[in-house]
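Intended use. Records like the one below are meant for learning the mapping from a protein sequence to its folded structure. Do not use them to infer anything beyond what is encoded.
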Amino acid sequence: MTTVTAPASPTTTAAALRRLYFARFAFAILWAAVTFAIADEINPLVTTLFVIYPLVDAAAAAIDLRSSRTTGSPTLLYVNIVVSMLAAVGLAIAGGGASIPAVLRVWGAWAVVAGLVQLIVAVARRGLGGQWPMIISGGLSVLAGGSFVAAASADDPALTNAIGYAIPGAIFFLIAAIRLGRAAKSN
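Structure written out for the chain above:
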């Protein structure tokens, strides 16, 4: 027996994205709070936290892909999954070598690519509503990623800015979730 599922409607997609954005907001805030509290230097716990962040991003992209196949290029979400998984591996290697500059370079490269993907996907989804925060967040991620790579060459590089990167992203996810709810009510 073959089951055919209908494509997701824009309202269904918006509702799924809204839930995902609220979850991403909560995770990013919690991650930043915990990581700020313990990340004076690279150690196995800090490395684990840095690895977890892009893994959650990959999982969120997979959830996004499943719930929104009709709202933009799924290819970009696959790219995001692969890039985030590669970033997690790179961060594990960089953190295992206790190298803050290496962690910042990997984190920065990931932020640039993931930000570009977020920006392009959000532009494609403008019709859903609530995507301007994601467009802005994607653009800022590209800029922030470049700054992390540059900061890796500083005399005394620190993880603080890389950790702080999660907070504006969280706020943009929260704003987008709220805007998606408003867009759904107006339809």
